[in-house]
Amino acid sequence: MEDAERQRPGVREGVPLDGFTVAVTAARRAEELITLLRRRGAEVVHAPAMRTVPLADDVELRHATRKLVDEGFDVAVATTAIGFRGWLEAAEEWGLGEGLLERLAGAELLARGPKVCGAVRGAGLREDFSPESESMDGVLERLRKDGVAGRRVAVQLHGAPLPDFTEALRAAGAEVVAVPVYRWLPPEDFGPVDRLLDAVLARTVDAVTFTSAPAVAGLFDRAEQRGDGAELLTALRSEVLVACVGPVTAQPLAEREVPVVHPERFRLGPLVQLVCDELPLRARGLDVAGHRLAVLGRAALVDGAARPLPPAGMTLLRALAERPGWVVPREDLLTAMPGENDHVIDGHAIEAAVARLRASLGAPDLIETVVQHGYRLAVEEERV
């Protein structure tokens, strides 16, 4: 395993993400995820694509809770730890806490995953079932197996409706009472999301992480509002790695035919490890003038060392790397440079930009000057 790691471009012990830029779209537990990524060398762009709004004072939540306490229920489905705890706290504020706990203790209690089980046990209760898959499909399979006809099922929602799950229960004869503990809403400030979208479209991020399905919807909704939906799909389907915490989060991406990776264990630690494994493998490596070069979102890796580059330098390097070994005319490079006039050919501007790029790379011989024609990467043998 260690030998394989050393062969990957840019992988150094302890900092496998050195030089890579990873986007975090999470609102909750974002700091934990960001810390884990930075410890492994990544530059992190944080742009919460959605926000959670607690509904402790919500009329709908209070009505559902009172109905369940007064009339009882046969089955309760807890979908998230934060939501389950929030429900109990809200009930306590309304003077319904003791009654809700008594009803939960007398009902069949299903928890979607280990974190929810922890919240359930923390309340002095005990779950009757939790699927190994940590998915709502696993919960639904168990309920269908036991039979729900004529039973009242309380479903604690996790920020968004669960139409497929609740309709399947109703079709099987259950009375479903939805418990909306919190809702997902668009961010109050779209600035970070817009900057993230700009970076994805410009390919200056190497990976985007998602920890909830609503965050996926939020990012695509904003892209559609901007008129960038199709371009976002193209980027995520090709050059940008998409990593999700689990299959539930990945589902809306799979429906859009976006390739997704997710860990077997649906936790932040395994998610970060997966990104550490996948990104170095995807980095396109070239043998150039006796060096190993990989072009990333905002940096170049030269012999495994990250070399951050400004936007103009990244643009020039990408233009050269797209045609490794071939001469790229000065006119093409000038046209590609941000802020330059496509119709004015300024040889001095290109010479100065290439000189700065060579200095930033720390290896001037990577880029050859072809007199009166342009520049090329001094490629020995291309490898992917």
Task: Write up this protein.
By secondary structure, the chain is of the alpha/beta class. It folds into three domains: 144 residues, Rossmann fold (3-Layer(aba) Sandwich), CATH 3.40.50.10090; 132 residues, Rossmann fold (3-Layer(aba) Sandwich), CATH 3.40.50.10090; 98 residues, Arc Repressor Mutant, subunit A. 45% of the residues lie in helices and 20% in strands. The chain has 16 helices and 17 strands. The chain is elongated. The two termini are 20 Å apart. The relative contact order is 0.12.
Defining key terms:
alpha/beta; Rossmann fold; Arc Repressor Mutant, subunit A; 3 domains; five-stranded mixed sheet; five-stranded antiparallel sheet; disordered N terminus
User: DSSP strand (E) fraction?
Assistant: 15-25%
* CATH class descriptor of the largest domain: Alpha Beta
For the record, give the distance between the C-alpha atoms at the N and C termini, rounded to a whole number. 20 Å
Number of domains: 3
Write down the overall geometry: elongated
**Could you name the CATH topology of the largest domain?**
Rossmann fold
Unreliable runs, pLDDT <50, ≥5 residues? 1-12, 340-345
Structural class, from helix and strand content? alpha/beta
Give Rg in angstroms: 26 Å
- Count of helical segments? 16
Tally of strands? 17
Mean pLDDT score = 86
Mind summarizing the main beta sheet? Answer: 5 strands, mixed
Which sequence of strands runs across the widest sheet? 3-7-6-4-5
CATH architecture of the largest domain: 3-Layer(aba) Sandwich
Percent in helix: 40-55%
